[in-house]
Write a sequence for this structure.
């Protein structure tokens, strides 16, 4: 870890805890900052805050008092989930207090370069693939961010010969200042998190921050088929490496004659890839490009793609019961992810869908429902999902209280050879703390059926 002086004797407010806030507060304390932590959860229900208190860090819990900002803080480290329209954040911006997220701290202390992945869909799969390829090639990767350990924890133990592979959300990227990945990937950009960002333009702008500090010696790997992504690429100073699953390219990663190529070098045949779904081919291409740029050998890349079946909660195969195949796609928190999941199957499908209502309709899903024979709906959007199902001419539609009850209900509508798919097209926060919790409940309910 770099022993930097940037935060020494600086008065810093860590706003919001969770894992990233705890890590940020502890790291800042080590770096000699005068740290105050503010979290909305009461202290007696907040073991993380109690732990920081024992370290000698000032802790204020139970609310976010705006008058706290009158105490002369020079920096705020914000939990990524706190929106910028939050009154506390608005007041801080009015006072000109710089606001960063924990990933910026990680970058400042890391000895190792960052390989950063963002996008609306596919970033977890891409991150996992890249990590596995580098691990297979003995490139000493460490995994961090939304998919792994908190970035600033990883950065503290990273050495110069490591590579930190990190999945980053738009929320995290809005809080960077100096962060500069050696390699950045933008998988795609679709409408997402508009309740946080306000507009698609602001959301795309946040995604583009991943390359704002990159230079010509750095690489930006981009989906050439997406204008929103290419618009970011045109403004980047990095060396652009495109990928496409639809056409042959002069350089970059692409498919030609049924094989994956990087530049003019054949890597492997597409038919030998285990991971299902046409959308996953794009994730594979971007991860291959990053692995090759990091110096990974073809043999290592092929070994991973010959065996990698996917990540948990993303089209995860759970098992088969009496000829019905169960898939957990709880990470499908938007319409595109569910469209991609449905496109991966030709068998009759029972779709389990619903969740947090962000104000949008689901008409875009209509063409993807051609193989759906029944729908089980739940959560705040259950009624909207039912309306969609009726528009698609689906005769069997049932509303249930939650995911646990959706599994036996789906089984009752199913026959041998059917797919039972949890792919909610919505965030989980109306009923579950995370999409992982939602997916685990689905998995447990399937096991109960057995």
């Amino acid at each position: 870890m770099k022993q930097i002086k940037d935060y020494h004797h600086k008065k810093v407010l860590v706003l919001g805890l969770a894992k990233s806030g705890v890590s940020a507060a502890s790291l800042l304390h080590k770096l000699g900052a005068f740290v105050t932590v503010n979290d909305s959860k009461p202290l007696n229900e907040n073991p993380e805050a109690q732990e920081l208190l024992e370290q000698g860090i000032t802790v204020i819990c139970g609310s976010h008092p705006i008058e706290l900002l009158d105490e002369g803080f020079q920096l705020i480290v914000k939990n990524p989930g706190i929106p910028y329209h939050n009154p506390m954040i608005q007041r801080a911006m009015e006072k000109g207090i710089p606001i960063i997220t924990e990933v910026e701290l990680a970058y400042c202390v890391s000895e190792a370069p960052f390989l950063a992945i963002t996008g609306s869909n596919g970033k977890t799969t891409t991150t996992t693939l890249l990590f596995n390829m580098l691990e297979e090639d003995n490139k000493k990767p460490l995994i961090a961010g939304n998919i792994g350990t908190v970035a600033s924890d990883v950065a503290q133990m990273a050495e110069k010969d490591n590579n930190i592979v990190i999945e980053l959300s738009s929320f995290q990227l809005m809080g960077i200042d100096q962060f500069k990945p050696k390699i950045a990937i933008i998988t795609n950009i679709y409408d997402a998190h508009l309740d946080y960002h306000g507009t698609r333009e602001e959301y795309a702008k946040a995604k583009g921050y991943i390359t704002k500090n990159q230079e010509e010696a750095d690489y930006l790997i981009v989906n050439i088929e997406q204008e929103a992504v290419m618009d970011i690429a045109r403004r980047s100073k990095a060396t652009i490496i495109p990928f496409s699953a639809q056409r042959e390219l002069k350089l970059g990663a692409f498919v030609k004659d049924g094989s994956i190529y990087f530049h003019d070098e054949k890597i492997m045949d597409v038919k030998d890839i285990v991971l299902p779904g046409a959308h996953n081919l794009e994730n594979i291409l971007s991860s291959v490009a990053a692995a090759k740029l990091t110096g990974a050998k073809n043999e290592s890349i092929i070994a991973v793609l010959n065996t990698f079946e996917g990540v948990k909660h993303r089209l995860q195969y759970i098992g088969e019961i009496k000829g019905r195949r169960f898939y957990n796609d709880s990470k499908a928190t938007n319409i595109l992810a569910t469209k991609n999941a449905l496109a991966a199957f030709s068998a009759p499908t029972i779709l389990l869908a619903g969740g947090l209502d962000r104000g949008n309709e689901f008409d875009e899903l209509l063409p993807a429902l051609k193989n759906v024979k029944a729908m089980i709906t739940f959560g705040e959007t259950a009624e909207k999902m039912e309306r969609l199902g009726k528009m698609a001419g689906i005769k069997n539609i049932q509303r249930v209280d939650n995911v646990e009850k959706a599994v036996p209900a789906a089984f009752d509508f199913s026959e041998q050879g059917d797919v039972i798919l949890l792919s909610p097209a919505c965030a989980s926060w109306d009923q579950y703390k995370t999409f992982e919790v939602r997916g685990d409940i689905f998995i447990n309910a399937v096991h109960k059926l057995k």
Observations:
- The mean pLDDT is 94.
- The chain has three domains: 11-100, 103-305, 316-449.
- The domain at 316-449 is CATH 3.90.190.20 (Protein-Tyrosine Phosphatase; Chain A).
- The CA atoms of residues 60 and 422 lie 40 Å apart.
